[in-house]
Specification:
This protein is of the alpha+beta class. It contains 2 helices and 5 strands. Strands 1-5-4-3-2 form a 5-stranded mixed sheet.
């Protein structure tokens, strides 16, 4: 993709729901930790559309990629690229079985 083309981030409905449910769950346990996780997940998502994006590993499902959020945030972003759009398909807690 030429440097002048800007990628766009799109959260699919399932990913958005998983993200909101996870943050709500952790907010009940520890609001500060939930805020930190929210920030880390959003930051990891944005790295996928940076001018010099951080790529993930090939996904377990064909045509997808996986980006581990971080050591202190036990989530993985499952995404795919369609032209100039990066679609976040899932926000998975690493303890969950997938696919």
């Amino acid at each position: 993709m030429p440097p002048s083309a800007k990628k766009r981030l799109e959260w699919r409905p399932a990913a958005r729901l998983e993200f909101l449910e996870a943050i709500a769950y952790y907010a009940d346990l520890n609001p500060a930790a939930a805020q930190r996780m929210r920030d880390e997940i959003c930051k990891a998502a944005l790295t996928l559309i940076d001018p010099f994006p951080t790529s993930g590993r090939p996904g377990r499902t064909a045509g997808t990629f996986e980006r581990v959020v971080g050591r202190r945030t036990p989530f993985t972003l499952v995404y795919r690229e369609k032209g100039s759009v990066v679609q976040i398909l899932r926000v998975l807690h690493q303890a969950r079985k997938y696919p």
